[in-house]
Amino acid sequence: MKQVFISFVIVFIWTTSLFAQIYVATDGLDNNPGTIDEPLLTISNAIYMANPGDTIYVRGGTYVSTATIYINSSSNGTEDSLHCLFAYPGELPVLDFSTQSSGKRGISLRANYWHIKGLEIYGAGDNGMEISAGSYNIVEQCSFHENRDSGVQLSNGAAYNRIINCDSYYNADPPDYGDADGFAPKLTVGTGNYFYGCRSWGNCDDGWDGYLRGATDVTTTLENCWTWGNGYLKDGTDPGSQANGNGFKMGGGDNSNSENLMHHFILKNCVAFENKVKGFDQNNNVGSMTLLNCTGFHNKSANYKITKSLFTDQILTVKNCVSFEGSVQLGGFAIQETNSWLSPFSVTDDDFISIDWSTADAPRQPDGSLPNIEFMHLATGSDLIDTGVDVGLPFDGSAPDLGAFETGTTASINQPFADVPEKMHLYQNYPNPFNPETTIRFILPQAGSVSLNIYNLMGQQVATLLDGYLSAGEHSALWQPHQVVSGVYVYRLQMNGFTETRKLVLQK
Hints:
The chain is mostly beta strands. The chain contains 2 helices and 39 strands. It has a 12-stranded parallel sheet, covered by helices on one side. A 10-stranded parallel sheet has the order 3-6-9-12-15-18-21-24-27-30, with no helix packed on it. A 5-stranded parallel sheet has the order 4-7-10-13-16.
């Protein structure tokens, strides 16, 4: 009998359409097709053209506009196919709304699953960006300055948004100067919003404001965020008592919060200094507040003030925190451990490499992370080194340091992640289609050995991006293909026997 051997090739097949790239430039025309050679003129027209998974690239230059850029719910993306609105790599688009009439916002984001990256938003008649009811969005490496209300405000149930490595500064709202904050997850905000690596300075009201009216029982998390110099105008003058001047205002409500509105605030490795009034401010919030490895320095009224009793079953936790040149006022209900104002610690200038904050607004690193400066970093020999308690944050040595800056840490503090999920998750890459490079992001529920590989549609491996041990949390990898042809590929993440696979498209 003749034997016939049949070999099988596994082929991955998708029926989804390819994603598009749409280009906007200062010399474009809105009746152009939106290609790199024939770009559009306005972001609004690009938004109208885009489908989920598409990437809008905005070329460098100044875009002067009096009209709000609306991203409405009709333009929702999906978890697997985000809309991307990106600065073109290596270029800076400046959205200049300074001729806009008072009360108009720069960008109004009312949709879900958008990723906005690399834009500078200046001079809006109200908020630089309002995220109103929009959820599951990422705003990354953007700056908001000299807007006529808060730089970024989240409201109307906006939830689970991630604000990553952004700056908001010199926002002021004449004539009363009473409401312009740097970042404002307040009033009717939703829950689960997360700020990482953000800076807020020189805003006439507060750096962050979590004041509520119409919302309650919501949670906001801040990690590795800095705020200073709030309560003043750009020229350094004080516009009056209506300009509150707090660093992190963690909540509260009208009429001394008679409604017991709860804004649960979590702050990790955050720094507040040189604010007109308080650094870390309860206001009249009665929700739970957690402050871990935070630093307060030379805030004029108090570095920390949380004295009002909390609502039933709510908890105030303050651990591994530092205060220098400013008072600490905490209620007896606070759960405290190894803070610098507790025995046996004594804080002096000698505990720090530098207390000069003049470099706090230095340019960010190329990846958008905070600048490496010496301000408030602990000096060799300080008794604040290796004397904290383990609160789940990365540390070197025998125990965590006190304050926001861990000495000599080998763990990356520039990789943002919120609460670790229960399962592994692999995001859709962006941009997609791409050329010359694309970023792949994923979340791990626990530390372990991980591989991330690229395959062609014949199942042949064409690249290995990762193969090693990673910590729990969010990670990313960059693919820069040089010796492969245009086409559809798949990327596969494997960990502890679990696998997730998605497609990507290379267009050369």
